[in-house]
Amino acid sequence: MFEFEGKVAVITGAASGFGRAFAEKGASLGMKLVLADVNPEALAQTVDALRAGGAEAIGVPTDVSDAARVEALAQAALDAFGKVHLLFNNAGVGSGGFLWESTANDWAWVFNVNVMGVAHGVRAFTPIMLRQNEPAHIVNTASVAGLLSPPAMGIYNASKHAVVSLTETLYHDLQLAQAGSTEGGTVGCSLLCPAFVPTGIADAERARPADLRNDSRPTRSQIAAGKQLQRAVQSGKLTAADVAEITFEAIAARRFYIVTHPGIMATVKLRHEDIEQLRNPTDPMSLKPEVKNAG
Ligand SMILES: NC(=O)c1ccc[n+]([C@@H]2O[C@H](COP(=O)([O-])OP(=O)(O)OC[C@H]3O[C@@H](n4cnc5c(N)ncnc54)[C@H](O)[C@@H]3O)[C@@H](O)[C@H]2O)c1
Fold first, then answer.
1. What is the pLDDT of residue 295?
2. Which of 38, 60, 166, 291 to probe ligand 1 with, by most ligand atoms within 8 A of CB?
3. Considering only CA atoms, which of 76, 26, 75 is closest in space to residue 55?
4. 156 annotated active-site
């Protein structure tokens, strides 16, 4: 079992949605918190609220797409608390619409945050965790969009598939690197794949940097995808707090795959069967109602 009390958690994208819920859950378990977000005002509000509730927390404004800032985040965590036991590579953004209508800026923004942000987190924190020789764990937030490829969200799907593969490989690499190491000193990892949950994700554009904004107006497919995302997110049945609860249970048990909406698994199986039987891909949105509520 992974013990949380008194341990140090670093959370990216901590000022909203899942990240904030992870922080609240960690605080309730007596963890020390290092919260990172690209939005400094929302981050300061989150840190203040947690401190008002008695938590030991610091905020480090961080753009996870910037390798140097993520390394500075790791150093800030060590300066404040000396160790890092739990890392949530959680910050993420999305943009929708037909693939061929997406701009180079759309690709750069989403991949810089969703993929490179996780990569920088893994690079900066895993060596620290391995050196500590104490139980430690990394949770990468992917999505059901890392297991399925719904239409009109191709960049997001591709970025989350990258997070799935990156994290499965991290699992294998950690196993190899720690083969024969002493009991208790192990670094583990988990892959979080939620479906749609009401958070700020449908309004992710608020975090897009000025230099990656589009000059052109959104196309019809982009407007439709934005509306569909708003509806799907708002209709999500689980809350961010529910997702945090499920995630902490999985970390405690050191479980790798964290699928918060198990109704989605029949569609994942169908996708795998399409591949195995060389069938053309089934549109996941044409299937079960659960998939319409997947994200
Ligand atoms: N809500 C859903 O339905 C859903 C489903 C599956 C996966 N996810 C994933 O969950 C993660 C968290 O998203 P959420 O739903 O809580 O959304 P959210 O918008 O509520 O929270 C995301 C946070 O990340 C921050 N952020 C954005 N760009 C950043 C950057 N470059 N550096 C640091 N912080 C940055 C934002 O300021 C925001 O506070 C994301 O990776 C998202 O893709 C969300």
1. 45
2. 38
3. 26
4. yes
Give distance in angstroms: CA of 93 to centre of ligand 1: 6
**Of 92, 15, 16, the residue nearest 47 (C-alpha):** 15
Q: For residue 2, what pLDDT band results from cuts at 50, 70 and 90?
A: confident
Q: Is the pTM of this model over 0.70?
A: yes
Residue 265 CA to ligand 1 center (angstroms) comes to: 23
> Which of 91, 78, 257 lies closest to 167 in space, CA to CA?
257
Specify the length of the chain in residues. 295
The tally of domains found in the chain comes to 1
CATH number at residue 83: 3.40.50.720
Compute the CA torsion angle 255, 6, 242, 22 (nearest 10 deg).
-100
Pairwise CA distance, residues 213 & 156, whole Å: 17
Going edge to edge, which strands form the sheet with 32-37? Answer: 56-61, 32-37, 8-12, 86-89, 136-141, 187-193, 257-259
Task: Establish if 156 belongs to a structural domain.
Answer: yes
Give Cα separations from 24 to 17, 51, 137, 245, 282 (angstroms): 11, 10, 18, 10, 39
Residue 194 in any domain: the answer is yes
Cα of 91 to ligand 1 centre, how many Å?
Answer: 5
Q: State which residues form the domain around 255.
A: 8-263
Residue 273 lies in a domain: no
- The answer to whether position 74 is within a domain reads yes
pLDDT digits (tens, 9 = 90+) for 246-283: 999 999 999 999 999 999 999 999 999 999 999 999 99
